[in-house]
């Protein structure tokens, strides 16, 4: 069997920011991608980016020194794409897989990989009841196609639940996330509290900054 994999579901940082109506958000999402790539390699895992073909060049330019593999997203729903990507990762021979997105940074990965090595699943809850990342040693399509933290609690006989974080899907969520220690390492204190897209009068005076990725 091969080392674990981290499957990172991603759009280009620019498309991610546009989809969430966060005009100045691309640098933050770029920093999150870089943080995941570096954290995966630091923990001996292979990063696999699951993306649309149109996003590959932009994502390949992030932390280009980090070796990574690619999975082309396929499926009519997001849940189907998650399940298909998980199956693709295991088909490559990985013994465990962490499934993550780029709206929250990596955290508690040492504990997560240690649990997976013992056959214990791992979930990192999002504050809205969703999942920031999920660590598994096999695929259950029904779970992955309708993934929530509560369904993970009900599904797994053994489950490690790590820190809950805000997933950034709006300017309001960004305001909340900046109060969380893990996020503060990525979000500079001077970041706009409300995104310029939703408050045009602030557009000319607010600037988005990011700090270097933290150690996960």
In short:
This protein has helices spanning 13-19, 26-42, 56-60, 78-91, 109-117, 141-144, 149-155, 171-177, 181-184, and strands spanning 5-9, 46-51, 69-72, 97-101, 121-125, 131-136, 159-161. The protein is of the alpha/beta class.
Written account of the structure:
With 216 residues, the protein is of the alpha/beta class. It has a single domain, classed as Spore Coat Polysaccharide Biosynthesis Protein SpsA, Chain A (Alpha-Beta Complex), CATH 3.90.550.10. The protein has nine helices and seven strands, in the order βααβαβαβαββααβαα. It has helices at residues 13-19, 26-42, 56-60, 78-91, 109-117, 141-144, 149-155, 171-177, 181-184, and strands at residues 5-9, 46-51, 69-72, 97-101, 121-125, 131-136, 159-161. It has a seven-stranded mixed β-sheet, with helices on both faces. Helix 1 crosses helix 2 (26-42). The radius of gyration is 17 Å and the shape is globular. The two termini are 25 Å apart. Residues 189-216 have low confidence and may be disordered.
| Classification by helices and strands | alpha/beta
Q: Reading side by side through the largest sheet, how are the strands ordered?
A: 3-2-1-4-6-5-7
- How many structural domains does the protein architecture include? 1
Work out the helix count: 9
The biggest beta sheet reads: 7 strands, mixed
Oligomeric status of the shown chains? single chain
Q: Compute the CA-based radius of gyration.
A: 17 Å
Query: Overall mean pLDDT score?
Result: 87
Tell me the overall shape: globular
CATH-level-2 architecture:
Alpha-Beta Complex
As a percent range, the share of strand residues is: 15-25%
Number of strands: 7
Low-confidence stretches: 189-216
CATH class group: Alpha Beta
